[in-house]
Design goal:
The protein is built from 35 helices and twelve strands. It is an alpha/beta fold and about 800 residues long. It folds into four domains: about 110 residues, Serine Threonine Protein Phosphatase 5, Tetratricopeptide repeat, CATH 1.25.40; about 200 residues, Serine Threonine Protein Phosphatase 5, Tetratricopeptide repeat; about 160 residues, Rossmann fold (3-Layer(aba) Sandwich), CATH 3.40.50.11380; about 180 residues, Glycogen Phosphorylase B (Rossmann fold). It has a seven-stranded parallel β-sheet with strand order 3-2-1-4-5-6-7, covered by helices on one side. The chain is globular.
Length: about 800
């Protein structure tokens, strides 16, 4: 055996890639102890990694050839074992070039060598490297790695396929064709091979052969989207628009919302001079790309010339709603319902119409009364007698939620219960197997807790720590991701859910309801948490089913579900008012502090200036960064009342996701109220485009004061402001959703800027603006205490105690 000190020195030389000194040191060790074989194994290894393979083999053979047959066999096994270990070490250290060289050296020493597990491990690691290089567009490096893989395993069609793709993107089309034809030889029934061959042949201007390749791909897989798109594109290039239309409509029957199919159809019809149909399909292309203003233009041009079907009316209505044109939506649906009077989908869309931004307070009552009366009418008129009616009803449930209702600042429990009971009555008829009470399965000593969401990448930030810090001795965590995002392209934050849960299921957002319920039910959960009911339509439906004995929601969307099958609302004790139970159909659970344990927030270094955000250098800047639909018209005067106190004040608002059309409506409101105060809002207010999270945190650092919205308080935005040291002015409202900042400031221990009423809110905001010393005092206190709101463990302990207690009670 090699002495420990010498072994440590050898390993150090190798780790530092100091092979010359390693060789010198090993040769000296051999002179001192020529009978220690391990010195020779290491000496050969040093030469090998130095890419002196001939010398490495010479060192090893100089030993092996000295022995008799029995010794040669024994020493060969010892050397092979030694090199195997070094392959594994280099794989674990991601030194894959070294691992491959060493593995190939084993094959030279022992031609009959076979270790499938080690080879697969090496190939898997190389494949992971090659895939990442491809994603990062390091194509040349990726090609090199794929060639290394294929030297180890030349009969794997997928690696030839990947090599071909990288050659294709490098515009080395002849090599790409050779590689993909090799893949086809190995796997002729994999449609993607023929698809890639078609792409390559197109580049080589062999269109007829390319078309045959695409057709072969579709023949092998009639649901292969890329082949349909490529075939449609090549027909367009060959000015065969009729064929593009033919193949695209076949594809559209399979992929009903694909943007690129609609684009091909729109371009094809336009090339044929049929502008009416072109506008329809180009409108759908923009609609499914969420470019609603552009889609609206195309749809309206189509509608001038021709009436639409139900799907067209629904899409055009959604565009009007996203562009905050509720009157146009109502007018359109009155016409649509005259054409299709029995359509529940059209009735539901008509019933749910609400403005994004209200121009005056009276509009709130008008639209609320309309919303509720049409809901009652919808419930009365819904029929489930025929298959067509049942299909239409389920379609209507997946169209839209009551999301904007909650932004009226009212108690929504009555309406939410009406709508949820309506869904529940439908699901009881149409999928009764998922509405039955569930028994507890306690075969496992751990309680099984499930979380289901479309928004782990955003709202998931709130409840990640519930999972991260969960006591895994007592609980087994299941996560169901319905976002439809590619699990291989997840953000680092999103991947945290994969790391900290016991089981994560990536389920297509187009998955059939029955399949989704089957997957969840099979896990025999004890508790299912649906954190954000009311944002995505699928969760309104799921909340009315019974997929676990106990079902909960949270303040990730702080509105009652109304559902008889959601048992508990997991909330924040600091945020809830005394009479909060009156706001929920669920049993309210007041978890300590904020209820959620917010992860630490890393604030980026500031590398921008105020001028980058159109902010005045000499201004006292109030950050007003809530979505504009959170600001109700009855509170607009507050901005003008604050501005009246100093011309140095400036208010920074953010454009909403809806775009400038909503911003302009909000500006009209400000113009009206500032004029009443004898002011020009444009001298005080600036509207900034939406930014990345990093830039938004820099904006926080460049402003002076955070003004909370009165009707719907800041959550993430308040957290961001505090992380950046901003004083937060808030006035808690009646509903919990108007008390987020209130709860956060209580936990922070900075209550001086909590107002009792609107007048005091204005006074605090003005004093912070005019009194630099007081503003700095509050800022210092925020900075000193900000860690109090992060990584809270008390709420997690209470949550887990609740889980245990409620299961025992049941």
């Amino acid at each position: 055996m090699i002495e420990p000190q010498k072994m440590e020195q050898i390993e150090l030389f190798l780790a530092q890639e100091d092979y010359e000194n390693a060789i010198t040191f090993l040769e000296r060790c051999i002179e001192e102890n020529p009978d220690e074989l391990n010195y020779y194994w290491y000496l050969g290894l040093a030469y090998l990694i130095q890419e002196n393979e001939e010398q490495a083999q010479s060192v090893w053979l100089s030993i092996l050839l000295q022995g008799n047959l029995e010794e040669i066999e024994k020493w060969t096994i010892e050397l092979t074992d030694f090199l195997e270990t070094k392959v594994e070490e280099n794989i674990s250290k991601r030194k894959l070039d070294n691992a491959k060289i060493i593995y190939e050296a084993i094959l030279l020493i022992n031609p009959d060598y076979k270790n499938t597990e080690l080879l697969n491990n090496l190939i898997e690691s190389l494949s992971y490297l090659a895939t990442n290089l491809s994603y990062d567009t390091h194509r040349e490096e990726a090609v090199g790695v794929y060639l290394e893989i294929l030297s180890l395993n030349p009969d794997d069609a997928m690696f030839w396929h990947s090599l071909a793709l990288n050659y294709y993107y490098l515009e080395r089309y002849s090599q790409a064709q050779e590689a993909i034809q090799k893949a086809i030889e190995l796997d002729n029934i994999f449609p993607a091979n023929h698809q890639v061959l078609g792409l390559i042949l197109e580049k080589k201007e062999k269109d007829t052969l390319a078309i045959e390749a695409y057709q072969q791909a579709i023949k092998q897989d009639p649901k292969f989207l890329d082949a349909y798109l490529s075939l449609g594109n090549i027909y367009l290039q060959k000015e065969q628009a009729e064929k593009t239309i033919e193949i695209s409509k076949i594809a559209l029957d399979i992929f009903s919302e694909n943007v690129f199919i609609f684009q091909n159809l729109g371009v094809a019809y336009k090339s044929l001079g049929d502008l009416v149909q072109a506008n329809l399909y180009l409108g759908y292309a923009e609609y499914f790309s969420h470019n609603h203003q552009v889609a609206l233009k195309y749809f309206e041009e189509f509608y001038v010339a021709k009436s639409g079907d139900i799907d067209f009316y629904l899409a055009l209505t959604q565009c009007y709603l996203r562009c905050d044109q509720p009157n146009s939506a109502i007018e359109l649906l009155e016409k649509a319902l005259s054409d299709f009077p029995k359509s529940i989908s059209l009735k539901r869309m008509n019933q749910v119409i609400l403005p994004v931004v209200y121009m005056k307070y009276e509009e709130i009552d008008f639209y609320r009364q309309r919303f509720e009366s049409l809901l009652i009418k919808l419930i009365k008129e819904t029929q489930t007698d025929t298959p067509e009616e049942r299909q239409d009803i389920m379609k209507s449930l997946g169209l839209i939620t009551n999301f904007h209702l909650a932004y009226q600042g009212k108690n929504d429990i009555k309406i939410q219960k009406q709508y949820a009971n309506y869904i529940h009555s439908i699901t009881q008829q149409m999928c009764p197997q998922w509405c039955q009470n569930k028994d507890f399965s306690l075969e496992n000593s751990k309680l099984r807790i499930g979380y289901i969401s479309c928004r782990l990448h955003s709202l998931g930030y709130l409840y990640l720590n519930w999972i991260k810090y969960c006591n895994k001795n007592n609980f087994e965590i299941y996560v169901y991701d319905l976002s439809g995002k590619d699990k291989n392209k997840l953000l680092d934050y999103h991947k945290e859910f994969e790391i900290h849960s016991d089981h994560i299921n990536f389920i297509s957002n187009n998955s059939e309801l029955n399949n989704l319920c089957t997957n969840i039910s099979a896990d025999q959960l004890n508790i299912l948490i649906i954190p954000e009911i009311g944002i995505d339509p699928i969760f309104n439906i799921l909340s009315c089913l019974r997929l676990a004995p106990i079902q909960c929601t949270t303040w990730a969307h702080p509105v009652t579900s109304g559902s008889p099958n959601i048992d508990y609302f997991l909330s924040s004790d600091l945020m809830e008012p005394m009479n909060a139970e009156q706001h929920y159909s669920e049993k309210l659970v007041r978890l300590p502090n904020l209820g959620f344990s917010l992860p630490n927030l890393i604030v980026p270094n500031l590398n921008k200036q105020r001028s980058d955000f159109k902010l005045r250098e000499d201004a006292i800047v109030y950050l007003c960064c809530q979505s504009l639909f959170k600001y109700l018209p009855q509170h607009d005067y507050i901005f003008a009342a604050i501005a009246k106190q100093s011309p140095s004040f400036q208010f920074a608002f953010l454009d909403p996701a809806h775009g400038k059309v909503v911003t302009k409506k909000f500006e009209k409101r400000l113009d009206r109220v500032f004029t009443d105060f004898g002011l020009d809002y444009r001298e005080y207010c600036v509207f900034l485009p939406r930014t990345s999270q990093e830039e938004f945190l820099m904006l926080n650092q460049l402003t002076d004061i955070f003004l909370d919205a009165l009707s719907w308080s800041g959550g993430f935005t308040t957290r961001d402001a505090i992380a950046c040291g901003l004083p937060v002015v808030t006035c808690p409202g009646e509903m919990m959703r108007a008390r987020h900042s209130y709860g956060i400031l209580q936990m922070l221990g900075v209550t001086e800027t909590i107002a009792k009423n609107e007048s005091e809110y204005i006074e605090i905001a003005v004093r912070l603006g005019l009194d630099r010393e007081w503003r700095q005092t509050i800022r210092d206190k925020v900075i000193a205490n900000k860690d109090r709101i992060f990584e809270d463990q008390e709420c997690i302990v209470a949550l887990e105690a609740f889980f245990q207690e409620v299961v025992q009670k049941r």
